[in-house]
Design brief:
This protein is mainly alpha-helical. The chain has 3 domains: 61 residues, no CATH class; 26 residues, no CATH class; 63 residues, no CATH class. Helix content is 46%, strand content 10%. The protein has 6 helices and 5 strands. A 3-stranded antiparallel β-sheet has the order 1-2-5. Strands 3-4 form a two-stranded antiparallel ribbon. A hairpin with a 2-residue loop joins strand 3 and strand 4. Helix 4 packs across helix 5. 6% of the residues are buried.
Length: 155
């Protein structure tokens, strides 16, 4: 992610390119790969507090201003941080599941979530839908609240 991809005024991060196997690509795997992802207030505040390096366009550069080596980062930073926090080991990619289940739990529709995550609605339903407990209760509450509003308007 480069600073030019971050719009704190709009509260979004644009996903415009990928970096994999030492290569930067100005496109993703699919047309959906290019997208806008909303920032939470906490995320935006964290980015505002992050010092910017004048020698690097990247938001999270390595010590020399370039791309982080993911294998080194996992070994040196990620795994020790999980251990220090008492969190069982997981892959950084698993944060995608955390985001998806949190978004669904917050009431974000699968249509919106699919757009933010750069995948299809079927993928959201098949891969992440089961992660949200209590969704039937929330749906019932919303439907009852809508029926109550409708009855109040017509009565």
């Amino acid at each position: 992610m480069e600073w030019r991809d971050v719009s704190l005024a709009d509260g979004v991060v644009r996903v415009e390119r990928t970096f994999a196997k030492g290569q930067r690509k100005d496109f993703g795997k699919t047309a959906r790969s290019r997208r806008r992802v909303p920032l939470t207030s906490r995320g935006a505040d964290s980015l505002r507090a992050l010092p910017r390096r004048i020698d690097a366009a990247l938001v999270f550069p390595n010590g020399r201003g370039g791309y982080v080596d993911l294998n080194n980062w996992r070994r040196r930073e990620w795994s020790p941080a999980l251990e220090a926090a008492g969190i069982p080991h997981r892959r950084p990619y698993d944060l995608r599941h955390t985001f998806a289940s949190s978004a669904l739990d917050a009431g974000i529709s699968i249509f919106e979530l699919a757009r933010f995550m750069g995948c299809g609605v079927r993928v959201i339903d098949r891969t992440y839908g089961h992660l949200v407990s209590g969704s039937e209760d929330r749906a019932r509450e919303r439907l009852d609240a809508r029926a109550a509003r409708e009855a109040a308007l017509s009565g």
